[in-house]
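Protocol step 4 of 5: obtain the predicted structure for the target chain.
Materials: sequence only (see below). No template structures provided, no constraints applied. The aim of this step is simply to have a reference model before the mutagenesis design in step 5. Sequence pasted as it appears in the construct record:
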Amino acid sequence: MAFTLNPLSIAKQVRVLAAAIPTGLAWGAKQVPGSNVYLLLAGLAAELVRLEATQDALANDFDITQTLTLLDKWEESVGIPDACFDRDQSLEQRRKNVITKLTQMRGAITREDFVAVAEALGFTVTIQSATASVTFFPLLFPTPFSAQQSRFTMLVSVAGINADFFPLLFPAQFSEAAAQVLQCVIGVITPINVQPVFEYP
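Step 4 output (structure tokens):
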């Protein structure tokens, strides 16, 4: 929801300023449109209206879901650009990236933590321990896991992407850009002793 200070119109602002001016012969025409005193107050009032409008815009810029002029500052504060995010994206996506980074900064320990990070990126995922063997990829690429490996393997099942991608983090990316970002972010926040494996059913 947009924040607003409900700025006054110039005419109302003139009346507010005029009320603060003492009465007397020098100020007798302060409420008379076209008089020198009124025109002076109108000029001051216009700047006050502009200032209040700027305050409204600045207040909204502190909301990451609406920010525009402060977006660069938001990105800088969370370390964007980085290995996962760049700035060559739409305004809406850049805002989502900042939200994701803020979510990521809290750290990820539980399944719910990883789900929350994925949701910030616009994905619906389920997290579970890997079974003894996961088989997917265009050529049914097998990914075998021993019982010991399964304890340290996290299966990330991503809904809503109807395609086959390489399931492991790999120097060469085989997935679409959005999925690459998801894999990158999950890879960064996953504990060093855990291997994330991605499934796109």
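Step 4 remarks: The mean pLDDT is 79. The beta strands are 124-129, 133-135, 142-144, 153-159, 195-199.
Proceed to step 5.
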